Amino acid sequence: MRGAEEFTIGRVFGLLPKALGQESISLWLGFTGFALLLNLLQYGLLHGPDAESLGTGLMAGAFSLAVFVALCFVQCAAIYAAAMRLDGMPVPAADALRVGFSRFWAYLGLSILLTIIVTLGLLLVILPGLFAWSAFSLALPILVVRRVGVFDSIGISGAMTKGHRLKILGFWFVYAIASFLAVVLVVLLAVAVLHLTGLDDLTGRELPALILNTVFSGLSFIVAGATSAIVFRLIEAQAAPA
Fold first, then answer.
1. DSSP state of 149
2. Share of residues in the chain with pLDDT > 90 (%)
3. pTM over 0.90, yes/no
4. Which of 71, 126, 179, 229 is the most exposed, fewest CB within 10 Å of its CB?
5. Helix 206-239 / helix 54-86 crossing angle, nearest 10 deg
């Protein structure tokens, strides 16, 4: 990206269409198909004749774990794919997934560590927790794109976000509101369609809700991953020497 690029809320949203290419769509469709299959199998188990058995509970838990792991892979891949696309070097979804596989354990460790740090900050006083989250918000894209270790990514993120932390907090606040409104709109539209077509009487609302949640969980993680890559690249470009 050009060094003249400035990190602003409008610029991040403006770059989002560029960061989300065919590879992001492929990642989303692949995850949705995989997760939907497992979630429907889990639904069948939990509503079957042996729903109360230990074996059913263990199998349902295994399906949930598999979906979570796939979600982690896909977000890693989405971050890498978006960063490469922003650099003008788009990669196939398969290559992005390979990076996701290679960074999975580091991604998991970093996610757990950041969750602990931010949670402790929020429990002590809310503002320190928010600023800790803001300071380390670039750690995941740094981990994936630069392929450094967990502690290195945290250190680099802390250094890069200096002077940008309030703006980062403001951006993600706006992003959270926009995401919430989008979800509410889609849910209302889905409920209206089910009611008007009579499908809610035929299937109930639990199964459509499961399908909708599966579709949007993958989409939200991919878009959030791409967005974090944009924020990282913009701040990185500002920090680079002219």
1. -
2. 54
3. no
4. 126
5. 30
